[in-house]
Amino acid sequence: MPPSKLAIAIHKLTSCSGCQLAFLNQGVVLLDLLNKVEIKHFIEGGINNFSAEVDIAFVEGSISTPEDLERAQHIRQHSKLVVSIGACATSGGIQALRNLSDENWLQAVYAKPEFVSSLQHSTGVAEHIKVDFELWGCPITIQQMNHFIQQLLLGSKPKPSGEKLCMDCKRQQQVCVLVTQQAPCLGPVVRTGCGALCPTFGRACYGCFGPSEQPNCDSLANQFAGLGLVSVEVAQRFAAIHSHSQPFRDQFHRWQTIHAKEVE
Ligand code: SF4
Ligand code: SF4
């Protein structure tokens, strides 16, 4: 008797759907994968069975609305493993930028804010339910997704890398833009996964894959100030795709405080 297939679901909360494309963009690899897994729910792929019991639920998107929270809890109850995929699901993503301000954005943006239902903050999934694995990135890559699923199929416990982007950049023998152009590159505190895409094109990394393990953000931010960035610019370097991740959030507030003292 052939071994039973792994039942998986791909869910979406508040997001742009870019990470789900990592499944569809696998091409022929996806066809091979379908011999080993059965997709029970994947709206973007035309399969709708939200309450299916699954072995693995991949969750894209942040918890930004009461409905997101309800859905995340429902997904947890119906899944053996929950894997958050992408910046939105791991740290709140771009939409978490609003967490950094006390501004009432609903009032400021919408003519009828009473019709909009959203939580005060946008946050990652793990702040609300138990998450077994996290795949960081905006968006996650096909290789990341393939590698993760293959490890699970082989029965080993995936260990997503927390290595610093600089390691990957050096392995590719890229010229360092921080050293040669004085560009404020976040590579020393960002996890690898993108293949050092921006430095390859002579640009500074702006942190799509989130904080690495043991990031020394204090030191890098001081370095940015030494390059001539004013305090508000240093703060802004950490307020991008993963602004709600703890190390970047701390650094943002540190430099906002320095800026506030400077203008007193
Ligand atoms: S992490 Fe980026 S690509 Fe993925 S859903 Fe969020 S915004 Fe889109
Ligand atoms: S370019 Fe950026 S990622 Fe590459 S080595 Fe320099 S600081 Fe690190």
Element layout with pairings:
Layout lengths: L5 E7 L8 H4 L3 H6 L3 E6 L11 E7 L5 H12 L1 E7 H6 L13 H5 L23 E3 L6 H12 L11 H7 L5 H4 L16 H4 L16 H10 L4 H7 L8 H17 L2
Parallel strand pairs: 1-2, 1-3, 3-4, 4-5
The structure holds iron/sulfur cluster (2 copies).
One iron/sulfur cluster binds next to helix 7 and helix 8.
Protein model, in words:
- The chain starts with 5 loop residues before the first strand and ends with a helix.
- It has 2 domains: 148 residues, Rossmann fold (3-Layer(aba) Sandwich), CATH 3.40.50.700; 98 residues, no CATH class.
- Helices cover 36% and strands 11% of the residues.
- A 5-stranded parallel sheet has the order 2-1-3-4-5, sandwiched between helices.
- The protein is built from 12 helices and 5 strands.
- Helix 11 runs antiparallel to helix 12.
- The chain is of the alpha/beta class and 264 residues long.
- The site of one iron/sulfur cluster has 12 residues, from helix 4.
- One iron/sulfur cluster binds next to helix 7 and helix 8.
CATH superfamily of the largest domain: NADH:ubiquinone oxidoreductase-like, 20kDa subunit
How many helices? The count is 12
Query: What is the CATH top level name of the largest domain?
Result: Alpha Beta
Bound molecules: iron/sulfur cluster
Q: Which architecture of the largest domain does the CATH hierarchy give at level 2?
A: 3-Layer(aba) Sandwich
> Which percent band covers the strand fraction?
5-15%
Main sheet: strands, sense, barrel: 5 strands, parallel
Mean of residue pLDDT?
94
Low-pLDDT parts are none
Tell me, briefly, the overall form.
globular
Cα-to-Cα separation, first versus last residue: 75 Å
With strands numbered from the N-terminus, the spatial order across the biggest sheet is 2-1-3-4-5
Radius of gyration: 20 Å
